[in-house]
Design a protein that fits this description.
Elements lengths: L1 E10 L2 E11 L4 E5 L6 H8 L6 E6 L2 E2 L8 E5 L10 H11 L5 H11 L12 H14 L4 E5 L7 H14 L5 E5 L3 H4 L5 E6 L2 E7 H6 L4 H8 L6 H10 L3
Parallel strand pairs: 3-8, 3-9, 6-7, 7-8
Antiparallel strand pairs: 1-2, 1-4, 4-5, 9-10
Helix pairs in contact: 3-4
C-alpha cells in the first residue's frame, strides 16, 4: 500500500501540494483528476521520491528508497527513455536491470501498438513515444504503475483499444494511478477517482458508489469543482451584447 501523509510541497513561495493525505492499495485503478497546475504531476513525482517535500510517503510501511523503487514505475509525458536507443536496446537494458521485467508483455504491447523494434526512439512520432513510455512502465514488473497523461498524441481508437488491453493484462495485485484530463473516456476503466484542486485533495470516491447513486463521473467532477453551467452563455452574452 502507498500511504501519503500530510504532504506539502512548495516551488519557491508557491504551494503545489497542501496537506495531502491519501492511501492507494494493491489492485486499484485510480484516476487522478484536476485542472492544469492542480498538483497531479507533482504528487506523482513526490510518490516516486523525485522531489523534496515535507510529510511522509511510504510503501508497505517503508520509505521509498533505492531498495524498493523498482516496485514503482512511471510513464511520463516528459519521457524517461533513451532517445538514441532502439526499442530492442531498451528491452535488453530493462531485462538486465529489473529482475521482474515482463518480456512477454513488452513484446505483446509492441505488437499491439505496431512499433518497430530496431529504430531509435527519437525517430518515433509524439504518439509513438508516449506509447513506448507506457510499454516500458507496464513491462518493468512494478506493483504500482503511475501514468501521467500517457495518451497524449494518440487517437481515440488507439486509446479505447488500449484501455481494453490494459484491463486484460493487469494482474490482481497490480495498481495503476492514472492522471488524465479524459474524464469521460476513462470513467468505465477506473474504479476510483481522486480529485485535486490547488494542491489539495477535494474528492475521493469509488466509481461503483457513483453508479449506485446514478451519478456520472463527469457530473461528480463538475459538482466538486463548482462548475457553473451558465458560464458559456454568460461569456457569449457579454461578448456579443450591442453597445
Amino acid at each position: 500500500m502507498i500511504r501519503i501523509e500530510h504532504v506539502y510541497k512548495k516551488y519557491g513561495s508557491k504551494s503545489a501540494l497542501s496537506n495531502v493525505n491519501l492511501t492507494v492499495g494493491p489492485g486499484e485503478i485510480v484516476g487522478l483528476f484536476g485542472e492544469n497546475g492542480a498538483g497531479k504531476t507533482t504528487l506523482m513525482k513526490v510518490i516516486l521520491d523525485l522531489l523534496r517535500y515535507d510529510g511522509q510517503v511510504t510503501l508497505d510501511g517503508e520509505p521509498i528508497t533505492r531498495k524498493n523503487i523498482a516496485r514503482l514505475s512511471f510513464a511520463t509525458a516528459e519521457h524517461s527513455f533513451f532517445p538514441g536507443l532502439t526499442a530492442a536496446g531498451h528491452k535488453d537494458f530493462f531485462k538486465d536491470h529489473f529482475e521482474r521485467f515482463n518480456e512477454k508483455r513488452f513484446d505483446g504491447l509492441m505488437e499491439f501498438f505496431r512499433l518497430p523494434h530496431n529504430k531509435p526512439i527519437r525517430s518515433f512520432s509524439a504518439g509513438q513515444k508516449n506509447q513506448f513510455e507506457v510499454i516500458l512502465a507496464l513491462s518493468q514488473g512494478a506493483d504500482y504503475i503511475l501514468m501521467d497523461e500517457p495518451f497524449a498524441g494518440n487517437d481515440l481508437f488507439n486509446r479505447e483499444d488500449f484501455y481494453k488491453v490494459l484491463l486484460g493484462i493487469l494482474q490482481p495485485g497490480e495498481t495503476v494511478i492514472l492522471s488524465t484530463h479524459l474524464i469521460e473516456e476513462v470513467s468505465g476503466f477506473i474504479d476510483r477517482a481522486v480529485l485535486i484542486r490547488n494542491g489539495s485533495v477535494i474528492g475521493d470516491v469509488k466509481t461503483e458508489e457513483l453508479a449506485e447513486q446514478g451519478i456520472s463521473l463527469v457530473d461528480y467532477v463538475k459538482t466538486s469543482y463548482g462548475y457553473e453551467p451558465g458560464r458559456v452563455a454568460k461569456a457569449l452574452s457579454n461578448m456579443t451584447e450591442e453597445e
